[in-house]
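To whoever picks this up:

The parser on our side crashed when reading a file containing two proteins. I've narrowed it down to the boundary between the first structure block and the second sequence. Both blocks are reproduced below exactly, byte for byte. First block:
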Amino acid sequence: MRNKGLLIAAWLAAFAAFAQAGDSEAPLQVRSDDWEADRARDIAVFRGNVTIEKGSLRIEADEVRLRTRDGEVQEGTIIGHPARFTQQPEGRELVEGEAERIEYDAANGIVILTGRAWVRQQGDEIRSETIRYHIDDQRVTATSGERARERVQITIQPREQAGQ
């Protein structure tokens, strides 16, 4: 049983690599109605009312699928109606968002939110069918998609000027 617990921790700790530095030291907690692990294929699936917490990072979903290699998460898929996340970056405002599907690809350093996706921080918000976050160069792209009737919507709040 201890090996199963370590395996789960390795999968999810690596998945949360985009979390804050302080979050990496925090304990990992996963709650779900069901859990299935295929150690031969290095896949774990959590289903039903899934909640993942690690430090300031919180994820809520209907299903979470993780694929690992050598104890490191290589891919993660979070599915929900919608899937939601919040995170409190150190020294910054809360980041929150949701999408029908959130995918993490470690090899390419990308997080993709698909299906009525939105992300908000400090009143700034982006809404789109698809939002891609390129981790290494901190680049964000948003597309409305072929089927989407709505265009990309971005709201940027005015910032206070120094000395005011």
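<<boundary where parser fails>>
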Amino acid sequence: METIKGEVGFIKTRQVSTKRGMVTAYSIKLEDGPWISFGFKKPDFSKGDVVEFDVQGEYNDCKAHRIVSKDSGTGGAPAASSNRDRTIVRQNALGHATTIALALLPEKKPSSEVVAERVIKLAEKFEHWVMGDKEEE
């Protein structure tokens, strides 16, 4: 038996004729890995989740699996993420950082370059926290 770990890139379904009639069979394609035959049980994970599979045979028949991380992490918890997710987080962080920076401006207004620099620095802190990244010193 072999263990294969990776991000789920695609879940394929197909109808198969059995003694019990037509049944749905599932196959999983990892982002940078092989296809895995998952059988007739509907997967309890989604595209983007990181999963570890115990497989066997020529067609990588799944004998067991463990979900390592879900794609929909919250509250700064590390999670598998896509560029699209990070872009959404960045846009949100930038909006909130702008609101905070504008509210904290002193009476003597600094130049727009200084404000922009402070907003971006604060937005990056928010982004790193939400995405579970380690902040660079």
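After patching the parser it read the second block fine. Residues 83-103 form the longest helix (21 residues). Residues 73-80 have pLDDT under 50 and may be disordered.
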